[in-house]
Design brief:
GO molecular function, one term: Toll-like receptor 2 binding
Region (Disordered): 23-78
CATH superfamily of the domain at 85-213: Toll/interleukin-1 receptor homology (TIR) domain
Biased composition (Low complexity): 37-58
Protein name: TIR domain-containing protein
Number of strands: 5
Strand order of the largest sheet: 2-1-3-4-5
Radius of gyration: 45 Å
Structural class: alpha/beta
CATH class of the domain at 85-213: Alpha Beta
CATH topology of the domain at 85-213: Rossmann fold
Strand content: 5-15%
InterPro entries: TIR_dom (IPR000157), Tol-interleuk_rcpt_adapt_Tirap (IPR017279), Toll_tir_struct_dom_sf (IPR035897)
Order of helices and strands: HHEHEHHEHHEEH
Helix content: 25-40%
Length: 214
């Protein structure tokens, strides 16, 4: 067909005819697409039975597995042994003998409560205020041996206020033990919590022990 010229046209040379044949027989080549030029999000048709595909951020950030601690849930010490003492006994200097009897009662028996008695357990050479604050914060409960001597002693009042600041509110951690006083002499700072009457059986020692155990 290439050798038949139209009217008024010169016939093409065989070389030019071969060139046209080769040009028409060539297939267009596709330009390779680099990863950088490829679109980041390509929507894929999903069938009703196939789960929805996750985005790129979901693949890069897997859901973390929750970690579990020890038996108490936090991996640390808990319960009774989380503090050094079960009871810190606050008393006046003139009531030392009564405080020693109370401590002996609490430390004896099956309970074997760990008590802090300042004149016995304070660190020699330590500051008095620092030793008291450390003992209060290191004890689960504070027993206030409230007597006439306790009310007269400014240092005992400081102990009482410090104990209340360590456990504010009626949390059962501060246990007043009234001895030798009428109800009217009960300190106003403690009116929102019950006290143990030292005139009861065993001078109230058993009630104090039961309160600490609770």
């Amino acid at each position: 067909m290439w050798n038949l010229p139209g009217p008024g046209m010169k016939p093409m040379s065989p070389a030019l005819v071969d060139w046209f044949r080769q040009a028409l027989s060539r297939k267009p080549t596709k330009k390779p697409v680099s990863p950088e030029s490829a679109p980041s999000d390509v929507s894929q048709p999903s069938s009703p039975d196939s789960p929805p595909s996750l985005g790129r951020s979901s693949e890069a950030s897997p859901i973390p597995t929750p970690s579990h601690g020890g038996a108490d849930g936090g991996g640390g010490s808990s319960g009774r042994w989380s503090k050094d003492y079960d009871v810190c006994v606050c008393h006046s200097e003139e009531d030392l003998a009564a405080a020693q009897e109370l401590v002996s009662y609490l430390e004896g028996g099956a309970a074997s409560l760990r008590c802090f008695l300042q004149l016995r357990d304070a660190t020699p050479g330590g500051a008095i205020v620092s030793e008291l604050c450390h003992a209060l914060s290191s004890s689960h409960c504070r027993v206030l041996l409230i007597t006439p001597g306790f009310l007269r002693d400014p240092w005992c009042r400081y102990q009482m206020l410090q104990a209340l600041s360590e456990a504010p509110g009626a949390e059962g951690r501060t246990i007043p033990l009234m001895s030798g006083l009428s109800r009217a002499a009960y300190p106003a700072e403690l009116r929102y919590m019950y006290f143990v009457d030292g005139r009861g059986p065993e001078r109230g020692f058993r009630q104090v022990r039961e309160a600490v155990m609770r």
